Amino acid sequence: MKNQKGFTLVELLVVIAIIGILSSVAVVNLNSARSKAKVAAVKGSLAGLAAAGEIYYNDHNNYTGFCADSAVSSATSSAQATSGLVNADITCTGNADAWAVSAALDNAGESGNDYCISSTGSGSTAASGNACP
Q: What backbone torsions phi and psi does residue 127 show, to the nearest 5 degrees?
């Protein structure tokens, strides 16, 4: 027998197959992480509205007109720019006593859910179409 150095064709094919399987698993996990990051960016953009709402209330003694305020427009525009929303669907409702902002989330783990932030200061996820708490 000759003492040859190197790999056989079968060994190379096995290594290539293993690398292919591992890379396909990594790509699937990367796409999932990217989707979750978009939703986190939407939640982060809207989370600042709680402080903006309190500042608005201190200045005006009510929430009337809060949805038309520039801080709300800026936060909702930022959330829409992340492309983590279904049709950039953000709804702001407000009256003298309270306000709420709802954004339809679009990712595998939270599809069909709305993220709500309101004058209570807490963010929550509710079924799509349900009013924000």
A: -60, 145
Residue from 131, 86, 120, 104 nearest 43 by CA: 104
Question: Which tokens go with 54?
Answer: 């309190």
Torsion of CA 24, 29, 34, 40, to 10 degrees: 170
Domain positions in the chain: 9-127
pLDDT at 68: 84
* Total-model pTM: 0.61
Residues 12-49: tens digit of each pLDDT: 999 999 999 999 988 888 877 877 777 787 777 777 78
State the CB neighbour count (10 A cutoff) for residue 126: 14
Query: For 23-54, b where at least 16 C-beta lie within 10 A, e where not — what string?
Result: eeeeeeeeeeeebeebbebbbebbbebbebbe
pLDDT beyond 60 at 125: yes
Coil/strand/helix, residue 86:
strand
- Bridge partners (DSSP) listed for residue 130: none
User: How confident is the model at residue 15, as a pLDDT?
Assistant: 95
- Based on C-alpha coordinates, what's the Rg of the chain? 24
